[in-house]
């Protein structure tokens, strides 16, 4: 397809011009291909930026585009690592955890230790300054860099008021703005400040960006990496290539043998920006994937028939709405099936304790001593929170979901922890807690406490599911809050729906176990009554 055919009457807005220049640049790369029955589409009307659509039917296993590895931006292709070898060639730099506590505590040394993430941020900042019109040299990735977004809808960039709309979602504590600030302050700024001639070769002192300008740029590059980068195998690795996925979808790795996921152990990897592959949008049902097998290029392949007008979609992983929003700044109905809610142990323990006080006169002393013993024994580390989620099948080999996701059970680690606590209470508390030896009685206490905790957890959100539904209905009729607030409402509503499903499931199980406990109690009391007559009969005989 001739790119010029996309030009409407010769008047391209900046967005269309960016697409046009980018695609021309991409197609000029040796070895690059772009299927003639596909097109880069302006999807801003549905808040999806650019995407790729099919213009004619596309059969399964069709090569949609080919990306030469040389066009990928990484530590292997940018010249920055050769200009700053002391920064990029530290021992094991790629394997280190960037935010290890010990590192934060250490006095700053130069060069700061880099990791795949910060290395790529430095490279993108370097290439960004080289793609400005004032730069004496020109980044070969300039047409690509110019279409990367400069604004993001990830919560990192939200106002406090927007963040507050997430209400009691655990996402609030995961936004990580402070951590990102610290990372930029300790790993990015020192390298740029120490090497002005590398980053700003022709700038006069007065025109060098300030710390706050660089920090803001580094935040944007970090966010672009989060939403756009791929996790590729290291070029010098002898191992097989990594599965095709984005860097953050670790939980989708390995377990399936479908054609779009390869069952392999983790391999040394490298973060990379992959032009064109990252124009593909994504959903929980998808029709294409990026194949990393070849040492010379990456290919996008269709995994089923794609109809004309249909968007070509990649897969970012089985992410809950909250994670999709945190990493990528969007939500979709299909990802709701993967929603999660964190339930704190504190809340469950509160209701367990109440039940034990009511039923067995648990004292403060026994409660404290039990916890002391758990700590001293050291056999069991009490978890602070548990993740509730539905049971959901993975997409099939054609990228489709074939069954409903259902909330079928509480997390196993939660039931293990409750079981352990009750066992220890029985041990420490003595004969008064004898009944905790009965599995059904334990289960009844457990399910009742969790049910109450789930109800309280739902109440922590400032609105009800019904109120949120109303807000989103009004938004659908053009009468709603901003897109960011709508996404926050979507996330908090999804979590409350999950909490309600969990309450239904736990409530049903509790009914069953209560029926068993009361049946057992009736049997025992019937036996007692029957047994109660026995001695008198014996006495009579005596
Ligand atoms: C790898 S990029 C995909 C290309 C991007 N649309 C663009 O214009 O550059 C990922 C970003 O695309 C957007 N995106 C991806 N899938 C989407 C979807 N199903 N709906 C809305 N936005 C989506 C999000 O903004 C996300 O951060």
Automatic annotation (TrEMBL):
Residues 519-529 have a biased composition (Low complexity). Residues 92-114, 234-268, 519-542 are annotated as: Disordered. Residues 38-317 form the SET domain. One of its GO terms (molecular function) is protein-lysine N-methyltransferase activity. Keywords: Methyltransferase, Nucleus, S-adenosyl-L-methionine, Transferase. One of its GO terms (cellular component) is nucleus. GO terms for biological process: methylation. Residues 93-106, 250-261 have a biased composition (Acidic residues). The keyword Nucleus applies. It is found in: Nucleus. Its EC number is 2.1.1.-. InterPro entries: N-lys_methylase_SETD6, Rubisco_LSMT_subst-bd, Rubisco_LSMT_subst-bd_sf, SET_dom, SET_dom_sf, SETD3_SETD6_MTase. PROSITE patterns: SET. Pfam families: Rubis-subs-bind, SET. Belongs to the class V-like SAM-binding methyltransferase superfamily. Histone-lysine methyltransferase family. SETD6 subfamily. PANTHER family: N-LYSINE METHYLTRANSFERASE SETD6, UNCHARACTERIZED PUTATIVE METHYLTRANSFERASE. S-adenosyl-L-methionine-dependent protein-lysine N-methyltransferase that monomethylates 60S ribosomal protein L42. This is Ribosomal lysine N-methyltransferase 4. It comes from Rhypophila decipiens. The lineage of its organism: Eukaryota, Fungi, Dikarya, Ascomycota, Pezizomycotina.
């Amino acid at each position: 397809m001739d790119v010029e055919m996309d030009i409407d009457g010769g008047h391209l807005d900046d967005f269309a011009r960016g697409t046009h220049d980018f695609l021309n640049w991409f197609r000029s790369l040796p070895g690059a291909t772009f299927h003639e029955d596909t097109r880069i589409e302006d999807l801003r009307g549905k808040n999806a930026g650019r995407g790729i659509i099919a213009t004619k039917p596309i059969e399964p296993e069709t090569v949609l585009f080919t990306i030469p590895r040389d066009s990928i931006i990484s530590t292997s292709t940018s010249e920055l690592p050769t200009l700053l070898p002391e920064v990029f060639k530290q021992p094991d730099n790629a394997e280190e955890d960037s935010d290890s506590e010990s590192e934060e505590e250490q006095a700053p040394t130069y060069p700061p230790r880099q990791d795949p993430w910060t290395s790529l941020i430095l490279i993108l900042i370097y290439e960004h300054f080289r793609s400005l019109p004032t730069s004496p040299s020109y980044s070969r990735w300039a047409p690509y860099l110019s279409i990367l977004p400069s604004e993001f809808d990830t919560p990192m960039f939200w106002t406090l008021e927007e963040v507050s709309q997430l209400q009691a979602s655990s996402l609030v504590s995961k936004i990580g703005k402070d951590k990102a600030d610290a990372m930029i302050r300790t790993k990015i700024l020192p390298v740029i400040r120490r090497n002005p001639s590398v980053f700003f070769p022709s700038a006069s002192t007065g025109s060098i960006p300030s710390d706050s300008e660089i920090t803001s740029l580094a935040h944007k590059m970090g966010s672009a990496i989060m939403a756009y980068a791929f996790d590729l195998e290291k070029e010098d690795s002898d191992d097989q290539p990594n599965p095709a996925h984005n860097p953050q979808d670790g939980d989708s790795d390995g377990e399936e043998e479908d054609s779009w996921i390869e069952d392999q152990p983790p391999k040394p990897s490298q973060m990379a920006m992959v032009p064109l592959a990252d124009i593909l949008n994504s959903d929980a049902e998808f029709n294409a994937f990026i194949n990393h097998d070849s040492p010379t290029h990456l290919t996008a392949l269709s995994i089923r028939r794609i109809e004309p007008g249909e968007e070509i979609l990649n897969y970012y992983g089985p992410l809950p709405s909250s994670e999709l929003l945190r990493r990528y700044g969007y939500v979709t109905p299909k990802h709701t099936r993967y929603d999660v809610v964190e339930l704190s142990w504190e809340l469950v323990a509160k209701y367990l304790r109440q039940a034990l006080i009511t039923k067995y006169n648990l004292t403060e002393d026994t409660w404290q001593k039990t916890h002391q013993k758990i700590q001293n024994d050291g056999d069991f580390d009490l978890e602070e929170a548990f993740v509730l989620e539905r049971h959901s099948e993975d997409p099939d080999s054609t990228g489709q979901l074939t069954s409903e996701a259902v909330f079928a059970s509480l997390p196993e680690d939660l039931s293990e922890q409750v079981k352990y606590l009750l066992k220890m209470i029985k041990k420490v508390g003595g004969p008064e807690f004898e009944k905790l030896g009965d599995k059904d009685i334990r289960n009844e206490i457990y399910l009742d406490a969790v049910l109450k905790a789930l109800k309280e957890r739902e109440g922590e959100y400032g609105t009800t599911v019904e109120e949120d539904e109303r807000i989103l209905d009004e938004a659908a009729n053009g009468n709603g809050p901003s897109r960011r607030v709508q996404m926050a409402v979507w996330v908090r509503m999804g979590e409350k729906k999950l909490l309600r499903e969990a309450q239904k499931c736990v409530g049903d199980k509790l009914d069953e176990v209560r029926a068993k406990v009361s049946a057992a109690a009736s049997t025992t009391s019937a036996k007692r009554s029957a047994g109660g007559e026995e001695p008198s009969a014996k006495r009579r005989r005596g």
